[in-house]
Amino acid sequence: MDLQDTRGSRPSEGWLHWLSSVTDMFAYPLRTSHYVELVNPLWSTHKLQAKVVDVWDETSDSRTITLKPGANWRGHRAGQHVRIGLAVDGQHYTRTYTISSSPERDDGCFTITVKAIAGGRISHHIVRKLKVGDYIPVGLPQGEFYLPDASPAQPLFITAGSGITPAMSMVRSMVSQQRMANTVHIHYAPGVQETIFGKELREINNSQPHYCLTEVHTNTMSENDPARHFSLEALEKICPDWRERD
Ligand SMILES: Cc1cc2nc3c(=O)[nH]c(=O)nc-3n(C[C@H](O)[C@H](O)[C@H](O)COP(=O)(O)OP(=O)(O)OC[C@H]3O[C@@H](n4cnc5c(N)ncnc54)[C@H](O)[C@@H]3O)c2cc1C
Fold first, then answer.
1. Which of 6, 50, 122, 211 has the largest count of CB atoms under 10 Å?
2. In angstroms, what is the span from residue 115 Cα to ligand 1's centroid?
C-alpha cells in the first residue's frame, strides 16, 4: 500500500537518491529500499511508514496515537490531515485523520486522535487494537485548511466530538508559538468525561487570557433545550461579535 505523495522532497536529499539509484542496480529486480525496510521500516524510501510509539485513551471510545514517521516525512501545518493504511481481516483500507499535534512538536513525532464510531471498521481497529511497536503506511500531510503564517485576527472555532482535531492542532500551535490570537472556541460534547482533550482545553482556557472556551455538554441538558444543538441563537449569545471573526 503506497500512500506517499512524493511532492515536496527536500533538495538536500538529492545525493541520497543518486546513491540509491546506483545501489538499486545491484538490488534488481527489487530496490535497495526493500532490503533496508527489513532492517528498519522507517528507513525505507519506496514507501512511507510510521511506527506507533504511544497510545493514550482520551475518552472511553477515543484514543490518541503517537506516530514516528519514516525517512521521507515532511512536517505538517496545523490543521492538515494524513491518510493512513491498515490491513484488517486480510483487507487493506485507507482512512483520513487530522494531525492533532502541533507542528512545533520537536521529537519528530505527530499524533492522530480517533473516535471509534458505531459500525466503523477502521476507527474501531485503531482505538482498540493498534499497539505500540506496530508499523502503518502513512501519506504526507495535505489539506488547505491550516493555520496561516500571519496570526488570524480573531479566530472562531465551532467544533464537536472528534471534529475538534484540526482546531486542537491550531490552538496548540498558537500556544507553542506564544501568539495566541483573540480566540473564541465553542465545543460540543456529550459530557465532561466524553470531551476529547477536555483537561488540556480547560488548562489553556485558564492560562491564556486571549482564548475563551465555551463547552456545551449536551447530555446534561434536557431533550427540549434549544441550546443542546448548535444554532444561530446560541452563537449570538456565546459570541455576539461572530460576524467580525475569521
Ligand atoms: C479530512 C478528514 C479528517 C478526518 N479526521 C478525523 C479525526 O481526526 N478523527 C476521527 O476520528 N475521524 C476523522 N475523520 C473520519 C475518518 O476518516 C473515518 O471516516 C472514521 O474514522 C470512520 O472510519 P471507519 O472505517 O471506522 O468507518 P466505516 O467502516 O468507513 O463506516 C463509516 C460509517 O458508515 C457505516 N457503514 C459502514 N458500512 C456500511 C454499510 N454497508 N451500510 C450502511 N452503513 C455502513 C458505519 O456504521 C459507520 O457509521 C476524518 C475524515 C476526513 C475526510
1. 50
2. 9
Distance (Å, whole) CA 45 – CA 41? 9
Per-residue pLDDT of 129-187, as tens digits, reads 999 999 999 999 999 999 988 877 799 999 999 999 999 999 999 999 999 999 999 99
Residues 181-236 have pLDDT tens digits of: 999 999 999 999 999 999 999 999 999 999 999 999 999 988 888 888 899 998 99
CB 215 within 8 A of CB 160: no
Contact call for residues 60 and 119 (beta carbons, < 8 A): no
Span from the CA of 232 to the centroid of ligand 1 (angstroms): 28
The answer to whether the CB of 120 is under 6 A from ligand 1 is yes
The H or E element containing residue 55 is strand 49-59
List the residue whose alpha carbon is closest to atom 42 of ligand 1. Answer: 119
